[in-house]
Amino acid sequence: MAQTVLQQVLILAAMMMLGFLLGKLGKVDRKGADLLSMLLLDVFFPCNILAAASGDFGDMPFSQVIKIALAYMSCFILFTLLAKPIAKLLRLNEDDSLVFTRSGFVGIPLCTAVFGTEGTVLGSLSVPCATLYMFLFIMQSFRREKDHNLKQQLKSMLTPMNISAVLMIIMLATGWKFTGAPLQFLSSLANCVLPTSMIIIGCLLSGSPLIDVLKKPILYFITLLRGVVMPLVAAVLLRFTGWDRTTCLCIVMVLGCSVETVISIFGVRYDRSPEMASKSVLQSNLLLPVTMPLMMFIAERIL
């Protein structure tokens, strides 16, 4: 498993490097990256989720779907609760502790690459959980003011990706699936998820101060905690669930992915340690080819 993960991560790193070169050469500017991000989140990801729910693995018992979703949400919340005491031990301020927050969107392409359709379904179950988590914990943590517009925030959750995740859960509950030409259409667009997501990350990295990030020792420790230690804590807890190994490994893989780009966006938007947030996003992506295989190698032995 660890060798397979390493191979897939290296393939993803090569795609990321392609995006980095495109960004450095000026072939894809910020507007181009924004367009690719829109296509990824609003078109390719939803198609990937719906196509996966229509596959052979789409007959997962609904009770299992609920249990896995609860496991994701529980781990997201647990890591958030652990962030503040860990930050105090590291002598970080409250704003810096927000870089420990996470969501699981980046893990879906990797789960798909390693586990196929089953991985897509299991990884996609993190989407509604990550969305609620982002709304209930991340966004609220970053906000300094409390007089925010609740209606506007709820409206912002109605994205194609969230809607497709809800539809996937309904499909798993009812057994309904796409077939024929609609399924082929969804599957064709779903194939764009992996390269597009990695190219976008590479383009964003091309405009970042890589040397400055690599010179900050505390970020290495934060990346180690977020990308290795915390997912392995989850692996130990998942061992007692009695679930099959693939399910547990997919959950751990999602939890071990790099810091979500939205963390840096929130950091800038609400002026909560924007430099630390941006650098943590950058470094966790740079070190993913190291942290992910290492973490999954240990997780295999735990599970």
Question: Which helices and strands, and how do they pair?
Answer:
Layout: H1 2-24, H2 30-53, H3 62-89, H4 107-124, H5 126-142, H6 150-156, H7 160-174, H8 180-190, H9 193-206, H10 210-214, H11 217-238, H12 245-255, H13 261-269, H14 274-286, H15 288-302
Helix pairs in contact: 1-9, 1-15, 2-4, 2-7, 2-8, 2-9, 3-5, 4-12, 11-12, 11-14, 11-15, 12-15, 13-14
Task: Fill in the keyword field for this structure.
303 residues; mainly alpha
Low-confidence stretches: none
Number of helices: 15
What structural class should be given to the helix and strand makeup? mainly alpha
Helix fraction bin: over 70%
SSE string, helix = H, strand = E?
Answer: HHHHHHHHHHHHHHH
What percentage of amino acids are in beta strands?
under 5%
Overall geometry? globular
Major sheet: none
Secondary structure: number of strands: 0
Terminal CA distance reads: 12 Å
Radius of gyration: 18 Å
Mean pLDDT: 77
